Amino acid sequence: MALAIKSAIAGVFLAVTSVAAAAEVPKLNVERMCRESAKRDSSSNFDPKRCLDSENRAREELVGKWDSFPVPDRQQCTQLATLGGTASYVALITCLEMNRDVRQERAGTKPQPSSMRKK
Q: Sign of the C-alpha dihedral, residues 92, 46, 40, 53?
C-alpha cells in the first residue's frame, strides 16, 4: 500500500514538473552547439557569433509566442531540439511551427508564415 502511494505521489510530481517546465521557454545551451558546429567543419565559413545571434533571435521570438503553442507540442519539440546533447532554439521554433501548420492544414485553415524566414 505504501509503495502504491509513493508511486502515485512520484507520478503527480513528475506531471506537475513537466507542465511547469513547459510553462516557460527552456534555457538551452546554444553556445556549446554553436562552438562545436564551428569546430566540426573548420573548412567552412561557419561563424559561431552569427549562430549565437540567430539562436538568440529565435529565443526572443519564442518568449513572445510560447503560450500560443499547446503544452504537448512544447514538451515534444523541446525534447527534439535537445536530442543527442545538442540544443537549438531554431530547431525548437521550427518544430513548433511545423506542428502548428500541420494542425491548421488538417483543420482546413491557412498556416501562418514563419517569422524566422529571411525578409
A: negative
